[in-house]
Write a sequence for this structure.
């Protein structure tokens, strides 16, 4: 396997429709002790990635994050 210096999250345990922050918070809860950086950094990277791919998070991000956390 070739590492490109990035992580891709695939959670096949409970596939279905859910808010983006639900998967993020589930990932953080399960992997908190293993994260190489603070959870706030992971959250910021996740949001930046969504915005990089054209998803405008301005109107819903904070409310969804608060509800899912």
């Amino acid at each position: 396997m070739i590492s490109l210096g990035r992580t891709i999250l695939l959670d096949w345990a409970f596939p279905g429709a859910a808010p983006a922050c639900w998967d993020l918070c589930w990932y953080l809860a399960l992997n908190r002790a293993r994260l190489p950086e603070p959870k706030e950094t992971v959250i910021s990277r996740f949001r930046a990635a969504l915005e990089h791919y054209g998803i405008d998070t301005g109107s819903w991000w904070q409310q969804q994050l608060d509800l899912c956390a």
Notes: The first helix runs from residue 20 to 31. The chain is about 50% helix and 0% strand. Residues 20-68 form one domain.
